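USER: Please consider what follows.
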Amino acid sequence: MSRTILKGLASGLSQRPTETYSPDILPLVQSLLRTLADIDFEFQRDRETILASAIEDPLRERALATLRTRHHERRAPYVRDIHKLERQIQRHFA
């Protein structure tokens, strides 16, 4: 299922009847997307801080690599939850 469909569900724009899936799905999708947006915002803010710092390049590159790894690890459980919801929604609309 595409990200567009998830965003449509999250914003209430879906043309599908809401009674075909659990009413708990929409708030959960909204919460997951909000959490991912917060994580991405924090990553960008921290990345910009590192890039603007006066530290030497090797240390900067190591800090950026650590930041990218941490960002991926923080996002992973939420992305997995979204994929689970996608499969659940697909089963209901199939």
